[in-house]
Amino acid sequence: MRAAMNASTLLNLTSADAAPGTALGASVLALNNAHANELSWLEPARLQYLVAHAFLARRIGALDAFLLAFDQDAPYDSPNFLWFRARLPRFVYVDRIVVAAHARGRGLARVLYRDLFERAAEAGQQRVVCEVNTRPPNPDSDAFHAALGFAEVGHASIHGGSKDVRYLARDLLAG
Asked: What is this structure's pTM?
């Protein structure tokens, strides 16, 4: 007998889940694209590609939150990912993490990050990296990442100067 899924159940997000035309894939796209300013817009085929190549693709509950992360060997062309690849031999890059409005304030992003830290450490990774927008600003994300122990390691202007980002890293050996 399967245990009932509760609101904080961590589940893998698979390529089949994210396939164009699936209900879950459509829900992930809708949640992602509602936050395209902070993340980036995705089309159905691109979502499936990203999930298929992710180091970790996880969701919480039916779709209260999700995370996509890539290791340094991923076939990924994001300018932010490539910034890290040019500077670090090994890392896990958080490409996107988003919590649905109805699920905010329950610590779900923290749950996803803890899971990622554990899995990255188990894979022998020493750091998790990400970026946070500085233009347009994202002060909530800045505060959240600082509380998790991330520190700035660089910055850049991307997308023809339309967006500025701070690059952050968290050493997994620091705990």
From this structure: 0.92
